[in-house]
Automatic annotation (TrEMBL):
PANTHER family: ABC TRANSPORTER PERMEASE PROTEIN, INNER MEMBRANE ABC TRANSPORTER PERMEASE PROTEIN YCJO
Cellular localisation: Cell membrane
Domain of life: Bacteria
Membrane topology reported for the UniProt record: Multi-pass membrane protein
Domain ABC transmembrane type-1: 76-294
Keyword Cell membrane appears in the UniProt entry: yes
Protein name, entry field: Carbohydrate ABC transporter permease
UniProt cross-references to Gene3D superfamilies, sorted A to Z: MetI-like
Main localization, broad class: membrane
């Protein structure tokens, strides 16, 4: 009897060991991919940021240059402006669209698709369509302004308007994603809370501020954190909207240049990889700092 039990135990242990080995073998490939594509390039860029442009060794000249670089600080300011302008507005439009579509009884799926399509469309294609719309001579934007007898605007050629023009396109593209996530958050709120509030005579505006908005806190945190990180890493929209014939982007006069654009120009136009790596490290620190502040400020306890 004991021999039979021991045999069954050994067989069970063998089966468990085999399953464990199979599980680890499946995890090995994505782990190696993550190490090769994420971890190693990150560490290599960090080490390269302490290297001189010509030669080898350890130096802080890239960071010293970074502190006194006016174009870098302009790109930092522009990056923060992208965050401040785009993230709150696209979230506000997203929640308005979500609340409006929730009240629609027919063709709700159609409106979801219409507002979500810009988010899943190629950023390059969308950027070039907007670039054509912003064209000062033949673009639709100035044509539309002429209907109201407003003079043409230099959407992407005027330094005072270029950043706003890029931000408008970013907001238009991301608001559908915010709408979809907010709709999922609204589905998670128990309907009994609204029924109890109606019995107590609460208005719709009061129900929104007292029930909907507080209980959407996890959704708001998710969209705020992901939206800020995306805005801090803005590249494709600026590159395709503002790239000149020479390949430089971020114009006019660096008015739309973000940290990623400046890093790209330093690396692939100026061929200064060490300095571009220093900009990358600065961007990483900024993203980490802003994300930690967001989680600290926005996170709060809630219960349904």
């Amino acid at each position: 009897m004991s021999d039979l039990m021991n045999g069954q135990m050994r067989k069970a242990m063998t089966l468990k060991t085999r399953r464990t080995l199979i599980a680890y073998s499946f995890l090995t490939i994505p782990l190696l991919f993550f190490l090769c594509v994420r971890i190693f390039p990150t560490l290599y860029a960090f080490s390269m940021s302490f290297s001189p442009q010509n030669g080898s060794g350890f130096t802080l000249e890239n960071y010293i240059h970074l502190v006194g670089d006016k174009v870098f600080w302009r790109s930092v300011m522009n990056t923060l402006l992208y965050v401040i302008i785009t993230v709150p507005i696209q979230m506000a439009i997203g929640i308005i669209l979500a609340l409006a579509i929730e009240r629609i009884q027919r063709l709700r799926w159609f409106y979801r698709i219409v507002y979500f399509i810009p988010y899943i469309t190629s950023i390059v294609a969308v950027s070039w369509v907007w670039r054509l719309m912003y064209d000062p001579n033949t673009g639709f934007m100035n044509e539309m302004l002429s209907w109201f007898h407003i003079s043409p605007q230099g959407w992407l050629t005027d330094p005072s308007e270029a950043l706003i023009s890029v931000s408008i396109m970013m907001i238009w593209q991301a608001m559908g994603f915010c709408m979809l996530i907010f709709m999922a958050g609204l589905k998670a709120i128990p309907k009994q809370l609204y029924e109890a509030a109606q019995i107590d005579g609460a208005s719709k505006w009061r129900m929104f501020w007292r029930i909907t908005f507080p209980l959407l806190n996890p959704t708001i945190i998710f969209l705020a954190v992901t939206g800020v990180i995306t805005a801090l890493q803005t590249f494709t929209q600026i590159q395709n909207l503002t790239a000149s014939s020479s390949g430089d982007a971020g114009g006019p006069l660096n008015s739309t240049s973000s940290m990623v654009i400046y890093m790209y120009n330093s690396a692939f136009n100026d061929f200064n990889m060490a300095y571009a790596s220093a900009i990358t490290v600065a961007l990483f620190i900024l993203i980490l700092f802003v994300t930690l502040i967001q989680l600290k400020v926005l996170s709060k306890n809630f219960e349904y």
